[in-house]
């Protein structure tokens, strides 16, 4: 599957940069392309120059709202982020048009954090605009939810998240939710190490996007997972997970016989990888709430057999009994067996509901505060009414 990837704001831009590296890796190691164009859009010039892999010309690192923000971001005011995206949206559409192999792209992936201003405000506007211009391609959003400590110290974080999620839910074909906090728990040393978190966020997409682009028969599985399967699966609220088991690189001759013991070890490793994928989903949710699901098994051809694929299917069926499940196998490198899982069309997402209910109670407070600020500004203005002005 080939994507056009666009990151908004600091978080979105950095994760898009990570996708640019995935594509470089796919090209270098596998001789295939999984991304036709990668762009970063921001109101903050410094953030754009901090990226490393996205092409550095103004058509790929796109500065918007320069006049309004002087290139310094919107300071978490998502209404301003939305306003700027509306004014400068055509700049982004023009840039997309320059993508050389745009016609090969299967879908768009737009990325932003829900808690900031530029990304959070800009992503719903741009999703809508892109859908209007390119009606034939699905537009997916990857939305990064804030760390817990941000939610407790700054209420704008929750309000912005609620507004962003509500807005994208009515325009995007699917919204992949990624909770920053989940990646802190995985490995405490990652705290404050956003670069590593970003790499973990992008990683599950690697095999998923590569599988359907392989041309060499030895890398084409019995059931190849292609763009069609992914597009059929991605609908509405979505989470993604990835898990792996290490395999011995060399097998002793007596181990190579296909005996029952080896088969049960393979199954065990497969289930272990799937367990990890499910327990480390990008957002905590209940698989029972999924109406669509997909899993991709990647392992050396010798390690895969139909029983293993079936076992994994049965396992996921138990966890997500309502879901229509699609699957694929992908014969790849030695030494590792990994499983990528998508749960989609979730009909219950507690985290999103919490954002909505907390924000609803915050709205009167926020409004009152805005009125107070306006009132104070009016007072200052009134006090100056008899002073002559030079303008
Ligand atoms: N995973 C991840 N999260 C990030 C990164 N940078 C910022 N965040 C999170 O994103 C949220 C803030 O959004 P930003 O992307 O910084 O904001 P922005 O869209 O640039 O908007 P403004 O700076 O307000 O103009 C917070 O919840 C941060 O924790 C990153 O590189 N990776
Ligand atoms: Mg910013």
Q: Which helices and strands occur, and which strands form pairs?
A:
Layout: E1 3-8, H1 9-30, E2 35-42, H2 45-49, E3 61-63, H3 66-69, H4 78-97, E4 107-113, H5 118-133, E5 139-145, H6 148-153, H7 155-169, E6 174-179, H8 180-186, H9 194-202, H10 205-211, H11 227-233, E7 236-246, H12 253-256, H13 260-279, E8 292-299, H14 306-319, E9 324-331, E10 336-344, H15 350-383
Parallel strand pairs: 1-2, 1-4, 2-3, 4-5, 5-6, 6-7, 8-9
Antiparallel strand pairs: 7-10, 8-10
The protein binds guanosine-5'-triphosphate and magnesium ion.
Residues 9-10, 44, 47, 73, 116, 118 line the site of magnesium ion.
Give an overview of the whole structure:
This protein has helices at residues 9-30, 45-49, 66-69, 78-97, 118-133, 148-153, 155-169, 180-186, 194-202, 205-211, 227-233, 253-256, 260-279, 306-319, 350-383; strands spanning 3-8, 35-42, 61-63, 107-113, 139-145, 174-179, 236-246, 292-299, 324-331, 336-344. It contains 15 helices and ten strands. With 391 residues, it is of the alpha/beta class. It binds guanosine-5'-triphosphate (GTP) and magnesium ion. Magnesium ion binds at residues 9-10, 44, 47, 73, 116, 118. Residues 9-11, 14, 43-44, 73-76, 113, 115-120, 144, 146-147, 150, 180, 194, 197-198 line the site of guanosine-5'-triphosphate.
